[in-house]
Amino acid sequence: MAQDDAIEARSSRKVYGTGPEAVVALDDVSIAIRKGEFFTLLGPSGCGKTTLLRMIAGFETPTAGQILLNGRDITDAPPNLRPVNTVFQSYALFPHLSVRRNVGFGLQMLGRPASEIDQKVERALAMVRLGEMADRKPTQLSGGQQQRVALARALAPSPEVLLLDEPLSALDLKLRKEMQSELKRLQHELGITFIFVTHDQEEALTMSDRIGVMSAGRLLQVGSPREIYNHPVNRFVADFIGETNFLPAEVSGGVATIAGGIAIPVDAGSPEGAHTIAIRPEHVRILPQDAGAAMRGTIAETTYFGTDSHVRLRLDGGADLVARYQSDTAGGEAPPTGAEVGVSFTPGAVQVLED
Amino acid sequence: MARRDFSASRIPGFATVAVLVFAALYLPIMMLVIYSFNSGDSIAIWEGFSFKWYPVAWNNEQVREVTFRSLTIATVASVIATTVATMAALGTTRRRGTKGQTFIYVMINQPLMVPEIVTAVALLIFFASIKVATGYQGLGYLITAHAAFCIPFAYLPIRARLEGMDRTLEIAAADLYATPWQAFRHVTLPLLMPGIAAGLMLAFVTSLDDVVITLFVKSAGQDTLPTYMLAQIRRSVSAEVNAISTLLLLLTVILLTAFFLLTRKRD
């Protein structure tokens, strides 16, 4: 394994129950998370992302496989012996303790001297800008403030890895955006490895250094937000992240042929045979009818979104597509419903999917 | 036809029945309290207002002796019962997938379901053989018996509190480097305190007013306040008993009010 991996899961498997009722929550997942990176586990609910997080924290024992922290096997170590802290989805603040005691809890349990605890609690609270709330009880705080206390509490003992289990899902949109940049800033400042679990693809794309996309207990793809967005390995990833047009095609020798016999150049190394091709709406260009485009189509519907319009169009071969039409493009407004237009795809933007 | 929502309070005679029930519950108690201030020594004929029975009861050496004995038994027994009940509640809510949970639950709550007289006779026979074997005649038998039948009263509120508690808090404590004992000491126990206090008070009150089991188990000269009062009333009707009962009632009201306030807090 590489020297700079903070967390490594090796063929980790988790099965709940036995016999015919057994549920495989995690199916032989292997993953390496580098030191100091903001790593996001992304997937729909029930995909196993939280199970994997709980295994790293020590709340679950894998049925098979290993969990390594800095190269050390921690598979069977209880949570209190792992230098890993968690920000819980429900925050899980201790209701009977003040904010200060909550934040100092980890250090107190580690038996650190009072002076050190005071100093670190002070610093953690300042970090999340809650210094003046130190003597309140958690129930006297708003949801956003509780979230910050949970974050300060998990960071105060200076863990090697911070685990965040959908921490922003209970916040409203504005607060969520604020906390997203706050988290990003903290991660950057502290240099701690963050493992973030979410089902929100936009959140994953904007915050992460790398993303692991999961579905049905399997890890489908690991890569930077750009890689995941531009080169999804399969239909699930392409569909889950962003909007995508899927078109059935026959691929042969670097050309994908879609309905109506329209030939679209694709990457030469693409798999051959009957496959689905994927093209993002922003890579579908709508041109004047007389611009000499390879494809022609008819506008079926235009929905105005402010910065852009979503245009549904039907290619002459019969395939349906969604395109984005930037509001500021020359020519101003998107063409009206029923208009005949030329269509082209951004070169290199068409992906042939494995399945 | 029935356009309005069903409500029991709209049934004809609802108010009458309610008043009768409350009267049956509280009228005798009110009579008791009123007659404790009777200046005469009858518990049925009102002869004027007086506080005299309170000092009479207080100055009665026997009353003081049995009250002290009752309080001793109730205190020791309720502390034992609550300790056992807390452990039982932790065992039945914090262990995953233990088979036969219902069976254990029924076993713990057995004293609530078995007729008290059965328990009383069983304890009488059981303790008699121990007395013969050891020669010990002390209060230990009464304390043991009381602790045993008080366990379910302490167990129920503690278990309810544990079941309502967010398990994530204990997990969070472990995540923040608390050993299982530290997590219990710093998170579970403080959050459980209202339940434990409620259980303790219920057990205390239950022990304090027990008659049936006490009558069967006690040795000579081990009268508790309730058995003493029963004997007094049988012998000659004494107005003194009214005063003692009123004081017991006051103690119970105070304890139950505290119980209510404690369990309501933070929920």
TrEMBL record, chain A:
Keywords: ATP-binding, Cell membrane, Membrane, Nucleotide-binding, Translocase, Transport. InterPro entries: AAA+_ATPase (IPR003593), ABC_SmlMolc_Importer (IPR050093), ABC_transporter-like_ATP-bd (IPR003439), ABC_transporter-like_CS (IPR017871), Mo/tungstate-bd_C_term_dom (IPR008995), P-loop_NTPase (IPR027417), PotA-like (IPR005893), PotA_ATP-bd (IPR017879). Residues 7-241 form the ABC transporter domain. GO terms for molecular function: ABC-type putrescine transporter activity; ATP binding; ATP hydrolysis activity. The keyword Transport applies. Gene3D superfamilies: 2.40.50.100, P-loop containing nucleotide triphosphate hydrolases. Belongs to the ABC transporter superfamily. Spermidine/putrescine importer (TC 3.A.1.11.1) family. This is Spermidine/putrescine import ATP-binding protein PotA. The lineage of its organism: Bacteria, Pseudomonadati, Pseudomonadota, Alphaproteobacteria, Rhodobacterales.
Automatic annotation (TrEMBL), chain B:
Pfam families: BPD_transp_1. InterPro entries: Bact_Polyamine_Transport, MetI-like, MetI-like_sf. CDD domains: TM_PBP2. One of its GO terms (cellular component) is plasma membrane. It is a multi-pass membrane protein. The keyword Kinase does not apply. It is found in: Cell inner membrane; Cell membrane. Keywords: Cell inner membrane, Cell membrane, Membrane, Transmembrane, Transmembrane helix, Transport. The keyword Cell inner membrane applies. Residues 67-262 form the ABC transmembrane type-1 domain. Its main location: membrane. One of its GO terms (biological process) is transmembrane transport. The chain crosses the membrane at residues 12-37, 71-91, 112-133, 139-158, 191-217, 237-262. It comes from the Bacteria. Required for the activity of the bacterial periplasmic transport system of putrescine and spermidine. Belongs to the binding-protein-dependent transport system permease family. CysTW subfamily. This is Spermidine/putrescine transport system permease protein PotC.
